[in-house]
Each structure stands twice: as structure tokens, then as C-alpha cells.
């Protein structure tokens, strides 16, 4: 089955995770790639690229906020629902205009994470794209700020977000750690080398144990105070302390269970990206292309010869 477009990257992730910067870096790495903006909340001067398709030509968040008196989140959901209603008479026509078997398209999607996890709007849009014949070319690229790696709880949260999007969208999936050029490379590599969510969480627990004790008076972990003497506290205070301890143990068991699930299935792996490093860009580009076998069925173009066949190469 021939492809209508060679590869379509569906770039998603939380707000501020570097999606737009990633899109720009990919286009600079492959100048023939085209970028389509599907974020109706993007500001006029915020896009560092010239979009080949722009949803703001159909509808935009500022317009909806002004006309319907909605907040930013409600306006964005309204815009995406409006896009869903106009897939046939706008989005499909725009996609068809970009059709090219060897073409490369990058969709810069909104940063409202519920669109990919528990609100089915993006899933419905992608399902329609598959019905139109673009399915074999589509790959989901989930961007996560590499700062999530430094904090164990944020690391687990980011992993669950990526996993939720993977399960909800049912597409080939690549998770990218963005902004690695802004982080300590050794720290990022050290976290990724653990290879286990449980190991990362255990390391964080050990660190917390070494650095500080629990302040039983207000449960503020940032305050170092000696534990209370059990003989001098009231029964009510003992009950409160026990309640806090039980709550902490329940949270710890929940986190351990989540970490165990992530380790057992190992469905999420992270690919660090440093946009200032050409080798890093090439590595990410190759992984994304491999997810949909882009380029494997393209014809090899032989370079032109500047010499006659009779003479042979110099």
C-alpha cells in the first residue's frame, strides 16, 4: 500500500515541554519537512517556523475567549471540538494539498495534556486521518522536559503521561526528553542508566532519609527537627502522628506499585535530545523514521557522474 505522505509526526506533550522547538529543530535537520500548526492557542509571534497549515486560519483561542467569554482551557477545548466538526471541509483538504509519497509532515499539537489522555478529541482526529489513508505514516512523538528526570516523582509522572497517551492513541510511539542542552548531561545520563522506575524511586527515598527527617508538628519535610518524645505528647497528637504515618505509607505503597508496573511492562523508554548536537538530532530522527519504516521503500537515487563511461573513474 503506497503512502499518501511519507511520514507524519504527531508531536504532543505538556505545555512548555519544547514541542514547537522540537518541530523547528526537525525542520532544520530536514529542510524539506513541512510543519502544520494544530494549536489554536499559539500566539501570532510564538511560532519560529512558517506553517504549511495553520488551524488558526479556521479558529483561534483568543477569538473564542472574546466571543464566548470562556477561559483559556475551555476555549481550547471548544476550538478542538470545532476542528473535529470541520475535518472534512478544512483539515482533509489541507492534508490532501500536502500529499506526497516521499513527503515529511510534522503536526505541532496543543499542550493541553487531557486532549491525549482522557478527552477523546485527538484520538478521533487521528482515527479520521487513518480512515483517509494516512495511518501507515503516522507516529506519535511525546515530548517531556528533561528537568523531569532530576526529580523522581516528576519522572514517574512524566512516564505515566507518556504511557497514557500511548494507550489512548494506539500509534507507534517515541518519547523524547527535550531541553537536554539546558541540563547537566551527566545527571540526565545517570538517571537514564538506572533503567528501572523502582530503582529511581528507591534512590530518591534513600536521599530523603539521609538529608532530612519528618517534622511531626506540621509534616514539613524541609524542616529538620528531632522526633518528638512519645512520653511527652498527648493522645490526640499521637493519633495525628499515626494518621500522617499511615498516609505516608499508603502513598509509598502506591508509588512502589506504579513503579513495579512500569518496570514489568517496560513500555516507555526515553530518548534524550540535544538540539545543539547534530548527532543527537540524527539519532532521534532515525528512531522516529524507523517506527513507521519511513525511507525503506524509497528508491535509491544515484549521484550524477562527471566522467565518461569509457574513461572510468579517476
UniProtKB/TrEMBL annotation:
Subunit structure: Binds to RNA polymerase II (RNAPII).
GO MF entries: GTP binding; GTPase activity
Protein name: GPN-loop GTPase 3
Family affiliation: Belongs to the GPN-loop GTPase family.
Keywords recorded for this protein, A-Z: GTP-binding, Hydrolase, Nucleotide-binding
Pfam (any one): ATP_bind_1
Job of this protein: Small GTPase required for proper nuclear import of RNA polymerase II and III (RNAPII and RNAPIII). May act at an RNAP assembly step prior to nuclear import.
InterPro entries: Gpn, Gpn3, P-loop_NTPase
Species, as recorded: Fistulifera solaris
Source taxon at top rank: Eukaryota
